[in-house]
Structures are given as structure tokens and as C-alpha cells.
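Chain X:
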Amino acid sequence: MSSTKKKKIEPLTGEDLVRKVKELGNLSKEEKARACGYYTVTKNGIERVNMMKFLNALIDAEGIELDGKQSANGRGGRSASYRISVQSNGNLLIGAAYTKQMDLKPGDEFEISLGRKHIHLKQVDVDEREEVA
């Protein structure tokens, strides 16, 4: 580590993690883990790579279930990580894993309330939609 202090990045998860690992190409596993934020710095300033956390996050991001659990429909797929990132175009994408878990259908509507650092979604009932229309 150089004499300038590096700012530790938050470990990447989900699609961001998979994308970054692919971008890093031929680097070693340890270098990829470090670049994705899976390391700690000891009191003596020594970086330690957290390979288990990195590999587990990568397994989760790829939707691989090692526990023998299957999703509700019996097929594989991504599991919900309960974390999302703002995309480069400024959008937040809530994935299908969440909508399936909530049994939502195309056309279901929500009211959005914004807090200081949170978003609250309240599903609009069919009766409320008809009153507004």
C-alpha cells in the first residue's frame, strides 16, 4: 500500500459485482476481490482480502443456491439480495425476484413516498384506482 491513504470502497454486490469481475479479466482471484471492496485493513495498515465473503457474494450474485433451496416456482434464478444500486442513468431497478416474492402482476400500481434516505412504496388497491379514474 502506498503512503497516500486509500479510501476503502463499499463491497460490490449483485449485478455490479458480476460486471466488475468480468471487467477485471485476467487478474487473480485475490486482486479481483480487493478491487471489488472485499478486504479489510488491519491496525498496522496491512490489507487482508476477505476471499470467503467475496466468493459468497459472487455465488449469490449469480443466483446459485448451494443450500438446496429452490425458488417458489421450482426453477433457479437470482435470489433477492435486498440491495440495489442507482444505475448510470439515475434509475433504480427493483428486480423480478422481489416482484415474484410479493406476487405482483404487470399493471400493479404503487404510491411512492420519499424520505430523507428511504423510499416507501404503498400498493394502490383496485378500488382506489377506480375512484381516481
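Chain Y:
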Amino acid sequence: MSSFLDSLFNLKGKVAVVIGGTGELCGAMAEGLAKAGTTTVLVGRSQEKAQARISKIEEAGGAAYFETADLSSKQSISDMLGRIVEKSGAVDILVNGAGANSPTPFLDIPEDEYDRLFEINTKAVFLACQVFGKYFLDRGQGGSIINVGSMSGLIPLSRVFTYSATKAAVHNLSKNLAREWAPQKIRVNTIVPGFFPAEQNKKVLTEERVAQIMGHTPMKRFGEAKELVGATLLLASDTAGSFVTGTEVVVDGGYAAMTI
């Protein structure tokens, strides 16, 4: 049984790039990928945050290192990819997880805030998919792109209007690319976290908001970052996830199944 499971989820020899890997959720995903055998590249702004995660990975016998790029610049992302390929030989998996949020009421949303969230949450994913997608196509050996969506990209949530719109765009982009690149064995999926306490949503999680969330979550708790790892490994694996593309893998404690 152990060898069977290893063959399904073993990612030894693969290289995974995790954009947003210095954050809480994508950091846990990066750590899970590394423990499954990948050389994992954590992409973010803070080397200090990355180093804490890299130390945990290395203590567990894994391999990881830090990279940075201006995610609003296609050239900067391309340059980063070039450095990674030069250092690690290839890239097989891309996780797109950079994100920002804001709880501004709809009529008060300033244009610069709207533009900023689309720049971070949507344009950065779009550009990384262009750069890494072309690399996967030119390489001709397939690949896995995992875009991090949001429950608010599936179900409208109050008080996060712009964030919801940016994530809905990511969901749509992922499905379009999955359809486009499936013949070339490039799989594109969206992982959809439910409610996980993270740096980007702390402003939104008031006492009233938490009560609303718990009342709508059958498991009656928040998710833990490590609970995203299983879905990540499924989507990353060319064996376990070989026929999985264009889908939204929801990890939400039953939130999306709840009505009244």
C-alpha cells in the first residue's frame, strides 16, 4: 500500500515554484510540496519570512530556496524563471498565490484600491501564467499550474467586493487556460480555500464576521493551513491528478454546501 501511495503522490525530482510562498497558506503548500520530494522555490518579498519556512523544510530533509520578482512586470517574472531554470534545471509546477484583500464598502471603494487589488490578485496571476505557460509549452513535457482562488470567487460575499471580482477572474482564467493547454498536457486548476485565518483577511475577521462564518460552516471551525496540502499534492501530481484539469478543488469545511 505504501509503495502504491508513493507512486501516486511522489514528486521527487520535480521543481515547484510557489508565488506567495512566504505567506501562511502558500507557505504551508510549499512545505507540503517539498516534503513530497520537490525542490521548492518560495517567491515573495520577505527573505526573512521565507527563511523560516525554508529552515523547516530543510530540517525535514527537503530542499527549498527563495526568489523574488516584481509580479507586475512580465520581464521581471521571466528573468526570475530564467534564474530558477539555470539553478534547478527545470520547472514542473507553478502555484500562483499572491493576494491582497480590503473590506471597503462598495460605494466607498476608491479607484486606486480597485486597481491595486486587480494588479496583485489578477494581473500577477495572468502574467505568471503567460511566462510559465510559454515555458511549459516550449519545453514540451507538460506541467501543472495551480492558481489560488477564493470562496468569494464562487459565492458572493459581503464587504470584499473588489477581492471577490479579482478572484472570480482568476477562476475564469484558470478554466480558459485548462481548455487551451490540455492537449499539451499542461493542467491548470484552481484550489479554493474556505475560511483560513491569514494575514490578508485579518482586517475582515471581526467578532461578528467570525460568528457569521461559523454559522455557515458545517465543521464549525476555520481551516488550518496544512489542510490545503492534500489538495495541492493531488493537483501537482502527474499521476494522481493526471486527468484533473479545469476544476475548482474546494477546501472549505462544507461552507459551499451550506444554505440555511
